[in-house]
Design goal:
By secondary structure, this protein is of the alpha/beta class. The chain has 5 domains: 164 residues, P-loop containing nucleotide triphosphate hydrolases (Rossmann fold), CATH 3.40.50.300; 127 residues, Rossmann fold (3-Layer(aba) Sandwich), CATH 3.40.50.300; 102 residues, Arc Repressor Mutant, subunit A; 75 residues; 61 residues, Orthogonal Bundle (Arc Repressor Mutant, subunit A). It has 24 helices and 21 strands. It has a 7-stranded parallel sheet, with helices on both faces.
Length: 614
Amino acid sequence: MSVLNGRDTLALLPTGGGKSVCFQVPGMLLEGVCIVITPLIALMKDQVSQLKQRGVEAVSIHSGMTRQQVDILLDNCIHGNVKFLYLSPERLQTEMFAARVKQMKVGLIAVDEAHCISQWGYDFRPPYLQIAALRELVPDVTVIALTASATEIVCEDIKDKLAFKPGSAIFKKSFARENLSFVVRKSENKEKKMLEILQKVKGPAIIYVRSRKATKEIAETLSKRKISASFYHAGLNFEERSARQDQWIQNKSRVMVATNAFGMGIDKPDVRIVIHLDLPENLESYYQEAGRAGRDGLRAYAVMIYQDADVSNLKLKTEQAHPSVDVLKKVYQALANYYQLAVGSGAGESFDFDLHEFTDRFSLHAGEVYVALKKLEEEGIIQFNESFYSPSMVHFTIDKTKLYEFQVANVQFDPVIKMMLRLLGGELFSDFVKISESYLAKALNVSYKEMIKILEHLHELRVLIYQPVKERPQLTFVLARQDAERLPLNTARMAARKKLLVEKMNAMIGFATTQYRCRMQMIQDYFNEVTFDTCGICDVCIEKRKKENVRAFDELRTEVLSMVKQGSQTIENLEERIAPRDHELFVDVIREMVDDGELEYDKTWRLKLMQQKR
């Protein structure tokens, strides 16, 4: 109601809190186009697809699109019946968009991932600062800003940078997750501890690691131990990522081992456990990733397994994430040479990018280039999409009358055009439509290569625009190519960002290493949510409860020992026979007995007495 009443609104809703509904419902009710600004290309494509399936006209404009394609889609927003326009923040800076938005009937502006507008946030993006200029172009339009994780200073910065009007509203949902148990385990054998945890906690799982190589290695280890697993990272092609994601969502594989490229926009409520085998860079990222467990409201676990070396590695990684100005200039100059761009050209243009080919050509180190690209992106100079995918698209550039005349004059193309019109309909004249070359080839009884040649020929004749599939990483020049020696770098802001990210790193390390305070309470405190309540289900709370109730713990331990002496037992069978009053305490008793060497798992993951070494 706040948005419908014309009040600028900030909604702070933790992961899985239904942020999209907050703008889609008022967007449908208000007259005109709802402009949704988000940096997440995969998420915008997914939401556009879902809206279209429900009969709602929606389009997305992002890096990787041609000027012609953007031109047509913006025209549809002015003259067509488009209800939702999803836009990456970099597109706000283009003259084409600025000119067209003034002609649109805009009903609402929704800013997703709103923390990106604040330099005090963990994922600052300068193009977000252009949203204030958008508000000047459509001054009477209400804004709703949404984020899953923002501290108090970031919330205030969001309202300031988005030029919230007097009488604005802010809605906050508690960061506490009553069903989510946060657990930290320090272990020198992280793989063994991971396997033990997966045996204790049944159901779908996500395991987060930092490197692509580790995703494959750990998935293979799990598969060898008869735990069905797959892996996911930005280096896989679109078909591989989609197939693996679908298999996991449909419970055809139990565990997804992934980098942080996985999880955004995934709707799987029954994830029972999320395990981190590497320390995340900050608590915001960790809370979002851990929060993918237990969205169905049932008990779930977020487990972090670390060792002392992980703390040192995180400190080193944080230091390396802030390359010098000289390194940024060197990498940027190499990019300009790589694409042969003259100063002042290339604004808004996207190019395929191969990191290894680029580093080999210019004798650069891949790790150094990667962090430089991320920093140039943070400074709003380029945009780098590692896992970009755009299917093959077609759009007729001539109207139906001229197309008919063309078919009469060029009978060799008549069957193709008729087939496309029959399969894809009149939308071909107003929008870019996804096509499958192989499907069309089969329908026309021609080879795949021949089908592509026909489409390319029609493209050359300007009958249609044919855009073949793209699935290589994309690098977009947000600004026109600059003189590398005069790169518009805000060095004062860069220094402040480095200091801030070091502080966030230290907060993450503090969360992992603290053993005396409720972990949920620590998270709430980090996000400025004052509470004196403890969760009662994190490892710290359980340890405290155990000490307060030593007798119950010892009794459970004795019962477990007595049962296992009679023969090996599954955890489920043990719990069923003992019927403990406190499930969490029972699980913790088992964990401690394994840690202390009283019990061990056999090859079938049944608990037995530890064999005494001779």
